[in-house]
UniProtKB/TrEMBL annotation:
Record InterPro entries: Gfo/Idh/MocA-like_OxRdtase_C, Gfo/Idh/MocA-like_OxRdtase_N, Gfo/Idh/MocA_oxidrdct_glycsds, NAD(P)-bd_dom_sf
PANTHER family in the record: BCDNA.GH03377 (PTHR43818)
One MF annotation (Gene Ontology) recorded for this entry: nucleotide binding
Organism: Aquisalibacillus elongatus
Keywords: Oxidoreductase
One Pfam family, short name: GFO_IDH_MocA_C
Domain annotation Gfo/Idh/MocA-like oxidoreductase C-terminal: ranges: 137-317
Family statement drawn from the similarity comment of this UniProt entry: Belongs to the Gfo/Idh/MocA family.
Name of protein: Putative dehydrogenase
Keyword Protein transport annotated: no
Length: 318
């Protein structure tokens, strides 16, 4: 009989709740403890998913020797300290993105997890979706021909979004769409094509020095030869829209709004790519495989560290 892994969760915001629900519904996990400072939010979660042991601090939660895995879903500036404590207690860790709040923190988290021999993974949903595997297939088949450019554009009518209101998501210190959305697509390109490297960027900020960015234009390079344009803008008159285009000499592939895939070539206008009956994976299934000692399709802290290096270079621009 497969082991049921005991899970502790630190942080129960909107994103944390999404994965909490998956843990509760998954037969390989049992959620046994929460740490969440917002007592109103904690009560809401207990009423919705059933009461479990709650802890006043992450240090107290980590004293529970029965917990095998900790899901860390607090704001980015708290990742480093708490993650190192989780690792020091020899517990496996699943962390939200970005990995940390700066490069040095990210590197220390990665090194510590590797040295401790614990399973370390990040919650990047895109590499588990059908669209990812179709994109991988088309690129492997050279369906686009020689790649000429990659373009990523993210547009928001306002930031933060209405459903994402909290105390940090709009701050320059640890919020903004570069940190919140950018890592998903930087990582996706690193998996599909190669690791992006930084060339140049310009970030527009409001007058309020505490507020996160309004826009970004960045030039990156993939595999030392493919230009990668990374752009974003908020406070504009349109609905939220995300577009990742991979432009080849034969065809152009576009991932639109996270899940919808389009393909076009010189003779045909864009056509939606059928994704039914294609391979997809589940993060928690893969995590259980890794915990069992098997090979698994996971995003490691090492990958998170590589993304962090590009993020911080973009944000360092004035």
């Amino acid at each position: 009989m497969n082991k049921v892994y005991q899970v502790g969760i630190i942080g129960l915001g909107v994103v944390g709740e999404r994965l909490l629900k998956q843990f509760v519904d998954h037969p390989r996990y049992e959620v046994v403890g929460y740490c969440e400072p917002n007592q109103t939010r904690l009560q809401e979660i207990n009423e919705k998913y059933g009461e479990v042991t709650t802890y006043p601090s992450h240090q107290e939660l980590l004293k529970n020797d029965e917990i095998d895995l900790v899901y860390l879903a607090v704001p980015p500036k708290f990742h480093h300290e708490i993650a190192l404590n989780i690792i020091a207690h020899n517990k496996h860790i699943l962390c939200e993105k970005p990995l940390a709040n700066n490069i040095n923190e990210a590197k220390e988290m990665y090194d510590s997890a590797e040295n401790a021999g614990v399973v370390h993974a990040m919650n990047f949903p895109l590499p588990y979706q059908e669209a990812y595997f179709k994109m991988e297939q088309l690129l492997d088949e050279k369906a686009l021909g020689e790649l000429q450019r990659i373009e990523f554009n993210m547009h928001f009518p306002t930031w933060p979004r209405a459903w994402q209101q909290n105390s940090w998501i709009a701050t320059r210190e640890q919020g903004g769409f570069i940190r919140e959305i950018g890592p998903h697509y930087l990582h996706l390109i690193s998996r599909l094509i190669g690791q992006p490297s930084y060339i140049a960027s310009h970030v527009d900020y409001p007058l309020d020095e505490r507020a996160s960015e309004l826009g970004v234009m960045a030039r990156l390079l993939v595999n030392e030869q493919i230009p990668f344009l990374f752009n974003g803008l908020s406070e504009i008159g349109q609905k939220e829209h995300m577009s990742l285009k991979i432009l080849g000499e034969k065809a152009v592939l576009e991932l639109r709004n996270w899940r919808v895939l389009y393909l076009r070539d010189r003779e045909n206008d864009q056509s939606k790519v059928e994704l039914t009956h294609l391979e997809s994976l589940n993060l928690l299934d893969e995590l259980a495989k890794k915990l069992d000692g098997e090979d698994a399709h996971l995003v490691s802290f090492e990958e998170g560290y590589q993304v962090q290096k590009v993020l911080e270079a973009i944000l360092a621009s004035k």
